[in-house]
Amino acid sequence: TLFRSVPSVRTASSFQNSSSILCRATNTTTMPEINMDNLDEQQVQLLAEMCILIDDNDKKIGADTKKNCHLNENIDNGLLHRAFSVFLFNTENKLLLQQRSDAKITFPGCFTNTCCSHPLHNPAELEEQNAIGVRRAAQRRLKAELGIPMEQIMPDELHYLTRIHYKAQSDGIWGEHEIDYILFVQKDVPLQPDPNEIKSYCYVTKEELKDLFEKAKNNEVKITPWFKLISENFLYKWWDNLHNLKPFEDHEKIHRM
Q1: Once rounded to an integer, what is the mean pLDDT over residues 193-212?
Q2: Is 176 helix (H, G, I), strand (E, B) or coil?
Q3: Which candidate in 178, 197, 202, 208 is catalytic?
Q4: Is 110 a catalytic residue?
Q5: CB 155 within 8 A of CB 117
Q6: Alpha carbons 26 and 250: distance in angstroms, whole number
Q7: Would you state the pLDDT for residue 48?
Q8: Is 51 known to be catalytic?
Q9: Is 234 exposed, middle or buried (0-12, 13-18, 19+ CB in 10 A)?
Q10: What is the pLDDT of residues 155-189, one digit of tens each?
C-alpha cells in the first residue's frame, strides 16, 4: 500500500522493481529529534533568509528572518508572512508529493504537496504584478528542493489560482502563519531531490492520495496542515479540471482557514 515500503534509509535504486506507484527515497541519514540545541546546520543557514512580512490583506509591511517568522512566540503576536504551495502534475495527471526531510525545522517527516516555501524580500520576488515575484520564488525552490532545472519550469508556466491564510504549530517552538499562494503546473520534468530537504517523493493518483489521508487518520503517517486544508477544501475539484483552471482563479479573495 501507499508509502508503506518507503523507509528513509532506502535509495532510489531500491524501487526499480516497484509494481505499484513509483516512490523514491532520497539518500539521507536519520536526524536527531528537532530542538533548539541540535538543529541541522544547512537548515539553520536558511533561517537567516529574509521573508516578506504582510498584513491580513497580503499588503507588504516589512521584512524579517525566516527564523523570526516561524517562532510561535512571534506568530502568537500576529507575525504573518507570504508563502506559496506548488502542485506539480505529470502528463498522467498524477500529483508529485514529497515527504519533508527529518532535518526540516518545521513539520519534519510530514508528507506534503510538491513544494512549499517563501518568496524572499528582494526586488525580483517582491514584485506583485500577476504574482510574478511569488512565481519566481517557486521556480527557485523547485530547483533547490527537487533539482528541477530552472529552464524546465518558467514562472509563466505556474498557474496562480488563489490564496489561503492559515496558522499551525509544528511543536512548542516552531510554527507557520502564512498567506499561501496556490500554484499549479502540469509537466513532465526531471527530478534530483536534495536529501536535506526531501526524505522521499512520489507521484500519486487521487485514489492513492485519499489512501494516504486515511493512513494519516490512523496516525500511520503525518501530513502538513496546509496540504490537509488545501486538499479538504479545494484540491480535488481543481485536479478534475487541470486543462481548464481559469474558472477557478480567484485573486481577490483570501480564504481564511
Answers
A1: 95
A2: strand
A3: 178
A4: no
A5: no
A6: 36
A7: 82
A8: no
A9: middle
A10: 999 999 999 999 999 988 899 999 999 999 999 99
CA distances from 180 to 35, 92, 116, 206, 209 (A): 26, 26, 9, 22, 21
73-81 contacts at long range (C-beta below 8 A, 24 or more positions apart): 75/167, 75/175, 75/176, 75/177, 79/53, 79/177, 80/53, 80/54, 80/55, 80/56, 80/165, 80/177, 80/178, 80/179, 81/51, 81/52, 81/53, 81/54, 81/118, 81/177, 81/178, 81/179
**Active-site position among 51, 116, 176, 202:** 116
Phi, psi of 63 (to 5 degrees): -145, 150
Residue range 8-20, pLDDT digits in tens: 433 333 322 333 3
